[in-house]
């Protein structure tokens, strides 16, 4: 079933991906944003974010006349049968999700929505928001549906078009079915439920992922203390289908625009109903500790004091494959290093703009020049193939702190560099045994 006209409000990672992908599925989509520059750019077919395949889908949609960009939600909803809300829900001062953008769109378009329109909330919002939006709208003919989005940045289009599942929640069955039908072509398992449960799925999933990562980061720390090797430990765990191999990679802590704010939001919501959730709090606290562990390793690498030390950073984004710096653990580590007196130079393939207090260079080898230590913070594949002999020549020191266990330790050894990973120091080298076994 094709809908004649869908409005998508917000053209960020989620909104633009949703709009372009729904258009590619055959729907007619009008995307709106408050950002004039963004809208002008999108009308010209230019996508301002790094997302594989997105620019192509936008170009196709524009050329086919199925995708349109307008300024302001009020200019998108005329004649729409469905309106998607894809606006930000950032962390507020108390950790709760800030719903100002959702509420402002509802106030802006409430009276303009055509009779029988369905409002679909794709933004990540606390349980009860669909009900709240319904009462703000005060339109008995307009149903409010929760349809959380699970795409990851860096693979947004692929995730949207090949989802593990679609979740649609509404207390009115026919509205839920109308929304689920928009995705029919994707053939994904679909969970139809009430609005509160759909809203809860999103937080429960993100917080579970965060908990898995905090667990694995804690296991890595323990491995270091006990002389075990976390790379082999997680491989051994991951083959267990009940655990699974993904989200078992230790790192400098989890970040990005979602996991940090969503863990805090669920924690705040739990507190608001008097529910003590120590598991979630420990997940957050373990993550906060992680960045201090990285700084400790760098401090050791430069001989005990960061004051005046030159430290090169490989990677600034919160993970590879994105240009998004929101809540990046790399930036948090950079802040701590700087506070302790380090002078920083950074390279990231996705970041070209300068940052205050960190010199951003466009050549990765510039990071090595005169560096007392280098710290890899983001797992960009190109870092693996750096010329380590050249790095050795350029550096003043000899240690690479690899917070993602991403680099080829032997290649660094051969170049005379000292590799310091996560959860592996003190463990024996089992590569020879591994070769015999395989
Ligand atoms: N980024 C992700 O990977 C991801 C994945 C799943 C869910 N989410 C959730 O989706 C929501 C949006 O996230 P995002 O990363 O796409 O945000 P974003 O910041 O990239 O984009 C939001 C867009 O909304 C626009 N906007 C703000 N107020 C508006 C208004 N009143 N009218 C029209 N446009 C307005 C902004 O200008 C911006 O372009 C959040 O709730 C987030 O938690 C994000
Ligand atoms: O094994 C791993 C996997 C991830 N990370 C880190 O965890 C963070 C989050 O990574 P990821 O989940 O891939 O990033 P997002 O694009 O923020 O996606 C998450 O947040 C989105 C917004 O809610 C959800 O839609 C996605 O399902 C959810 O994975 C990043 O800092 C990663 O470096 C690790 O350290 N080790």
From TrEMBL:
Active site, renumbered: 258 (nucleophile)
Gene3D superfamilies in the cross-refs: Cytochrome c1, transmembrane anchor, C-terminal, NAD(P)-binding Rossmann-like Domain
Catalyzed reactions: UDP-alpha-D-glucose + 2 NAD(+) + H2O = UDP-alpha-D-glucuronate + 2 NADH + 3 H(+)
Cell inner membrane among keywords: no
Keywords: NAD, Oxidoreductase
Residues the entry annotates as binding NAD(+): 33, 38, 89, 124, 153, 261, 326
Domain of life: Bacteria
GO annotation terms (biological process): polysaccharide biosynthetic process; UDP-glucuronate biosynthetic process
The protein's Enzyme Commission number: 1.1.1.22
The protein's annotated pathway: Nucleotide-sugar biosynthesis; UDP-alpha-D-glucuronate biosynthesis; UDP-alpha-D-glucuronate from UDP-alpha-D-glucose: step 1/1
Domain UDP-glucose/GDP-mannose dehydrogenase C-terminal per the UniProt entry, residue ranges: 312-409
Xref: InterPro entries: 6-PGluconate_DH-like_C_sf (IPR008927), NAD(P)-bd_dom_sf (IPR036291), UDP-Glc/GDP-Man (IPR017476), UDP-Glc/GDP-Man_DH_C (IPR014027), UDP-Glc/GDP-Man_DH_C_sf (IPR036220), UDP-Glc/GDP-Man_DH_dimer (IPR014026), UDP-Glc/GDP-Man_DH_N (IPR001732), UDPglc_DH_bac (IPR028357)
Classification via SMART domains: UDPG_MGDP_dh_C
One Pfam family named in its UniProt record: UDPG_MGDP_dh_C
GO molecular function: NAD binding; UDP-glucose 6-dehydrogenase activity
Residues binding substrate: 150-153, 202, 247-251, 255, 319
Family membership: Belongs to the UDP-glucose/GDP-mannose dehydrogenase family.
Stated name of the protein: UDP-glucose 6-dehydrogenase
Organism: Solihabitans fulvus
């Amino acid at each position: 079933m094709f809908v004649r006209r869908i409005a998508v409000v917000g053209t960020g990672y989620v909104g633009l991906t949703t709009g372009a992908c729904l258009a590619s599925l055959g729907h007619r989509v009008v995307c709106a944003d408050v950002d004039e520059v963004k809208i002008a750019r999108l009308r010209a077919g230019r996508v301002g974010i790094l997302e594989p395949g997105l620019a192509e889908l936008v170009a196709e949609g524009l050329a086919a006349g199925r995708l349109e960009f307008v300024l302001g939600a009020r200019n998108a909803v005329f004649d729409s049968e469905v309106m998607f809300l894809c606006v930000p829900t950032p962390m507020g001062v108390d950790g709760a999700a800030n719903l100002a953008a959702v509420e402002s769109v509802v106030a802006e378009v409430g009276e303009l929505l055509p009779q029988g329109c369905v409002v679909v909330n794709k933004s990540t919002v606390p349980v009860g928001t669909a009900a709240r939006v319904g009462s703000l709208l005060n339109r008995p003919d307009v149903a409010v549906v929760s349809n959380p989005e699970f795409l990851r940045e860096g693979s947004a289009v692929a995730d949207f078009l090949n989802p593990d599942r679609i979740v649609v929640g509404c207390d009115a069955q026919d509205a839920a079915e109308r929304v689920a039908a928009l995705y029919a072509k994707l053939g994904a398992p679909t969970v139809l439920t009430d609005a509160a449960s759909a809203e809860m799925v999103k937080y429960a999933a993100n917080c579970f992922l965060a908990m898995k990562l905090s667990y694995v980061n804690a296991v890595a720390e323990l491995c270091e203390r006990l002389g075990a090797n976390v790379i082999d430990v997680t491989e051994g765990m991951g083959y267990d289908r009940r655990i699974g191999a993904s989200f078992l990679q230790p790192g400098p802590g989890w970040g990005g625009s979602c996991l940090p704010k969503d863990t805090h939001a669920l924690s705040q919501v739990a507190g608001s109903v008097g529910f003590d959730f120590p598991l979630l709090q420990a997940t957050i606290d373990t993550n906060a500790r992680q960045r201090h562990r990285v700084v400790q390793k760098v401090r050791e690498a430069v001989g005990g004091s960061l004051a005046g030390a030159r430290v090169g950073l490989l990677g600034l984004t919160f993970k590879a494959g994105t240009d998004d710096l929101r809540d990046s653990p790399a930036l948090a580590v950079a802040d701590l290093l700087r506070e302790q007196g380090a002078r920083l130079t950074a390279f990231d393939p996705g970041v070209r703009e300068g940052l205050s207090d960190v010199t951003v260079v466009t050549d990765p080898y510039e990071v090595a020049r005169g560096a007392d230590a280098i710290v890899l913070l983001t797992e960009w594949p190109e870092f693996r193939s750096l010329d380590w002999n050249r790095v050795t020549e350029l550096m003043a020191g000899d240690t690479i702190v690899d917070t993602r266990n991403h680099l080829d330790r032997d290649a660094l050894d051969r170049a005379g560099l000292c590799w310091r990973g996560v959860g592996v120091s003190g463990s024996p080298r089992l590569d020879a045994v591994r070769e015999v076994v395989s």
